[in-house]
Write a structure and sequence with these properties.
Blueprint: H1 2-31, H2 38-63, H3 71-87, H4 92-115, H5 121-140, H6 153-157, E1 159-160, E2 164-165, H7 166-184, H8 186-196, H9 198-203, H10 208-234, H11 245-255, H12 267-286, H13 291-321
Antiparallel strand pairs: 1-2
Helix pairs in contact: 1-12, 1-13, 2-7, 2-8, 2-10, 2-11, 2-12, 3-4, 3-5, 3-10, 3-11, 4-5, 4-10, 7-8, 8-10, 11-12, 11-13
Length: about 325
């Protein structure tokens, strides 16, 4: 009986996310004849690339027991700063480098608030989210910024060998690097250790504060990269860019099996979570679901993902105690 319960629990935790993904694809394929077309599938991949890049950083943060609500605003302020710098005459490469440093700086500030000031990650990043949203409007004066060099479009609109969209290629590379760091290095072990038991990790010799700084810097850097890809794709620096992205990113990570309590999850499963969000958003658009209903659905999905994670945690404890 114990083995049966354990095997059933293992199956559910390992494969539910993929079953849900397949059911969603089937559902929207039945509702829309063009949903399963090659063109639309590539369109989904392009759409998820922006949030997909940032989910890697968010995976590190949530596994460590933290959260970053400022990720959407970091994406937005990164996009508009790069736009403003290029319009002022800065070369796109240097503009991107400046934005990368901005993302890292935001990560450092979040880490300081969390590790030194001892604010909860929720409050610290919520405040940062609001500040950065205001900064984005200050940079743009509330107006779109446009007029970039043509070559900049390659990042968000280009294709490798006229087949693979460049944003998708960037996302894949980020996922591979994230997987290697999280699953194959000591740093990854430290991230899981901190998420499982921060005090025990500290007593075992792990420099918890230092690791947290690195984690939030990774999150900020990847959010900045997402901002650059977003800017290149839409070819305009919008002051409201990235609004609501934090919901999609956190939902994708939790859907991918990363425990909201920290210490558990695999970056490979997060890919499935990102695909689910992409299929869901694209499918709702294709069947003409109104935007406000989309917000309701995405909020419900987040609540479902967190609730499912909580129930699996309780079930896991019961099985271990049995």
């Amino acid at each position: 009986m114990k083995n049966t319960k354990t095997s059933t629990f293992t199956f559910l935790t390992r494969y539910t996310i993929y079953i849900v993904l397949l059911l969603l694809i089937l559902f929207f394929s039945l509702l829309s004849k063009t949903f399963f077309s090659v063109e639309n599938l590539f369109n989904i991949l392009r759409q998820i690339a922006i949030i997909g890049i940032s989910t890697v950083g968010m995976t590190f943060i949530i596994i460590s027991g933290g959260i970053d609500l400022s990720v959407g605003s970091t994406i937005g302020v990164s996009a508009v700063l790069a736009a403003r710098l290029m319009v002022l005459g800065m070369h796109p490469v240097w503009a991107c480098i400046v934005v990368f440093f901005l993302g890292i700086a935001i990560g450092v500030i979040n880490a300081i608030l969390i590790t030194e000031v001892k604010l909860s990650p929720l409050i610290a990043t919520l405040g940062m989210m609001t500040i950065l949203r205001g900064v984005a409007y200050l940079i743009t004066d509330g107006l779109p910024v446009y007029g970039f060099p043509k070559g900049f479009k390659i990042i968000g609109q280009g294709h490798l060998l006229n087949i693979i969209p460049v944003p998708v290629l960037i996302m894949v590379v980020v996922f591979i690097i994230g997987y290697i760091i999280l699953d194959k290095t000591k740093f990854g072990i430290y991230v899981y250790g901190i998420g499982n038991n921060e005090e025990a990790s500290r007593l075992s010799g792990i420099k918890v504060r230092k690791v947290k700084y690195y984690i939030y810097c990774i999150g900020g850097l990847l959010a900045a990269l997402s901002g650059i890809v977003l800017l290149s794709r839409v070819n305009s620096g919008q002051p409201n860019a990235g609004t609501g992205y934090e919901l999609d990113i956190i939902t994708a990570v939790v859907l991918g099996g990363v425990s909201i309590n920290g210490g558990e999850g695999k970056i490979t499963s997060v890919i499935a979570g990102v695909l689910i969000m992409g299929v869901l958003i694209n499918g709702m658009i294709m069947v003409n679901v109104a935007e406000y209903y989309q917000w309701v659905v995405k909020g419900a999905v987040l609540l479902f993902a967190v609730s499912y994670d909580s129930l699996m945690q309780i079930k896991n404890k019961k099985i271990r105690a049995y």
